[in-house]
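Bench notes, afternoon.
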Amino acid sequence: MKSRIRRGFTIVELLIVVAVVAILAIVTATIYLNTQVQARDTHMRDGLDKFADAIMLWSSGHKGALPYGGSGTTYDATTQNCANPMNNRVEGWQDAGVYSSSCTIGDVMVKLEYLPKDFFSNLSKVTSKPSLFMVHSCTSDPAGRKFIVMTSLEDPDEKDREHFKKEHERCFTTLPYSGAGTADYFRSTYNMQIATTVSL
């Protein structure tokens, strides 16, 4: 009676199996990470719209008042608004809590419950940006009733970039910072990638 010869895997076969498993793990991890990035970007797009909607709701509930805020301003309980620091204009970062001793549009929206307290903390800030939302008054509206609200994405697509460009063209007849060239302008807005305009 012939005895069966048991043959194990060769080193080459084991290496092939290990390599295949490693490749599958890398592919799976990449897909997972991309899915997470897309989910965070979708959340940011939604957050941008909610922030803009809150500004419009606040204005309609305050007789069409313009929101103010920024570095060096304080909250005015009488008007339920930040003090007007820039001659009826808004410039700069406007998240709640972005300035330790100043008032922002975000601070007002949270204080008056137009946005939940955890609204800003639940959004994922792009690590290269100082904050989440930047707001500028539109130079195309002399009455000062139009704003552009901007934020960043981790992986913006061509549609995002094209929409951002169109929103800028609608909002600015001149660049937000006087005397700034195109390169300076995009640096001053920290290369935000998506935007929406708000008309009050």
